[in-house]
Amino acid sequence: MRPAFAVGLVFAGCCSNVIFLELLARKHPGCGNIVTFAQFLFIAVEGFLFEADLGRKRPAIPIRYYAVMVTMFFTVSVVNNYALNLNIAMPLHMIFRSGSLIANMILGIIILKKRYSIFKYTSIALVSVGIFICTFMSAKQVTSQSSSSENDGFQAFLRWLLGIGALTFALLMSARMGIFQETLYKQFGKHSKEALFYNHALPLPGFIFLASDIYDHAVLFNKSELYQVPVIGVTVPIMWFYLLMNVITQYVCIRGVFILTTECASLTVTLVVTLRKFVSLIFSILYFQNPFTLWHWLGTSFVFIGTLMYTEVWNNLGTTKSQLQKDKKN
């Protein structure tokens, strides 16, 4: 029952979260900082109440280690959300972030001296080609959709390049954070809920440096059209409603993934998360009418097929099936 409930939370929470993020970004592309701050604040308050027991519970992992992890997590979150302000369309944003396997493999080879099978190298090559195709086709769209002025088109393309650079940096930083987190869990044990709280609570003072931008967007949110919230009938500026729903769905998404990781094998988690990303991508293309060519579809298929190949899903499913048949005979 709990795994099915967790899958429902992942799909409902994560897919809805992407929808509300795109609604926010389409109206105000530079709202990434206020969105990140709201998400961090909500999860930090919830964790302070229920995980840290109002500050009375001592952390299992020393704070100095969390300080390093938090620096990386804060940077990744801010950069990923800010990339939407740099001519990065939501579908490309989702596809690019699906390339985490590439970053994990590269840093695993460099830092952990890992070696992989030819099959895994092939799957990573497939993901890389897929991301390259989508990125290249998006670059052509940026230049063609820009103003007829050559100067304006060049500036739009430079902003897009900066956005790609930001996503690449965030991807590598996220992979490095994963490796650091893995070493911490080996040393001190796995404390996912505690890490979730400290990763969101400790960076809050850092938002002081972004206070001006957050305030400016709060003013813009106040000026947005009014919207009557269903059921409760309260009227609020629609941008604040979108932000509230984004924060709530982000929490639902995180909780769903957490339950899934504790109840299911890593293969199942990978499959659910990959399928969720694909559903979010399809919805973004159809509902928001984001431009998506046949080349984009080809690149997307490469990314998802490569991801499934990397997890060796077919071999694992075959093993599971044979095991079930053996159990039946016994």
UniProtKB/TrEMBL annotation:
Pfam families listed in its UniProt record: UAA (PF08449)
The entry's keywords: Membrane, Sugar transport, Transmembrane, Transmembrane helix, Transport
Keyword Metal-binding: no
Positions of transmembrane segments: 32-51, 63-83, 95-112, 119-138, 158-175, 196-215, 227-245, 257-288, 294-313
The protein, known as: Solute carrier family 35 member B4
UniProt organism field: Enhydra lutris kenyoni (northern sea otter)
Protein's cellular compartments: Endomembrane system
Family designation: Belongs to the nucleotide-sugar transporter family. SLC35B subfamily.
Molecular function per GO: UDP-N-acetylglucosamine transmembrane transporter activity; UDP-xylose transmembrane transporter activity
